[in-house]
Amino acid sequence: MKSLGEGRPSLSTLSSSGSRPRAVALVLHGGAEYGADVVRPWRLAYLRMVPVAQAIRSAGARHGLEVRLLRNRVRGWNEPHRHPVEDARWALRTIRAERPGLPVVLVGHSMGGRVALQVCDDEAVRGVCAFAPWTPESDPVEPVTGRTVVIAHGVLDRVTGPGDSYRYAERADAHAERLARFDVAAESHALLRRPAVWNRLAAEFAVQTARLLPERGLLARAFAQQAPLRWRLTL
C-alpha cells in the first residue's frame, strides 16, 4: 500500500442555530475494503452523507444539536491498519476536547456504519445508527455494550448483505442497551431510492438518542417490539 501522503481527516461542522450546543452528531461516510487514495470532497461516498447530515441538522439545530461530518484520509478500510477507525477515534477526541461533557451520537453508512459500530465504545457516545453497514462475522459486538443501536438495510442491497446486518443484530442484541433493525423496502445500497426514509430515521435517532427530545414515533414503536421481530422491522 502506498503512503497516506498529505491526506488528513477533515471534520466539518454544521452548527446549532446560535444556541450553545447540547449534543453532537458525528456522521461517517462509506468507502472500500482497500484503497489509499485520498478522499476528496467530491467523492460520492462522502457526498452521500451530506444530505443525511443536513437532515439531522434541520431536525436538531434548534434543540442544540451540532452536527460534525468526518471526511476520512483515505477511502479504504485497509486491514490491519483500519484507517477509518483511526480517523473516527481522532474525530471523537477532537469533539470531546472542544465540547467536553456533551453526549455524542454516531450515524454511518456502509464502511462508516462498520466504523461507528466499532468506535461507539467511546466514553462520550450514547448510540449508533448504521445504514447498510458492512458487518463481517468476525467483527466484535462488545463495543455496543450499553449503547442504543439502530440498523437499517435496503432489501435490494448487493454491496453489503442485509443478512449480514441481521446476524450482527442477533449477536449484538444482548450487549446493547436497546437495538432495533429495519429492512428498507425497494432500496439498494446507495440510499438514493427512498432518501426521505433514511433522512427521517437519522434525524429521529439523533435528536432522541441525544435526549434532546422525548422518545416517540418510529423508534419508540420499534424498541417496544420483542426480538427477533425487532431485528426485522419494515420501512
Structural topology:
Blueprint: E1 10-14, E2 23-28, H1 44-47, H2 50-60, E3 65-71, H3 83-98, E4 104-109, H4 111-119, E5 125-131, E6 148-154, H5 162-172, E7 178-184, H6 195-209, H7 217-224, E8 233-234
Helix pairs in contact: 2-6, 3-4
Strand order, biggest sheet?
Answer: 1-3-2-4-5-6-7-8
SS-based class: alpha/beta
Rg, Å, rounded: 16 Å
Run of helices and strands = EEHHEHEHEEHEHHE
The mean pLDDT is 94
Q: Whole-Å distance between the termini?
A: 40 Å
- The percent of residues in helical segments reads 25-40%
Major sheet: 8 strands, mixed
Morphology:
globular
Proportion of beta-strand residues: 15-25%
DSSP summary, beta strand count: 8
Q: Name the poorly predicted regions.
A: 1-5
Count of helical segments? 7
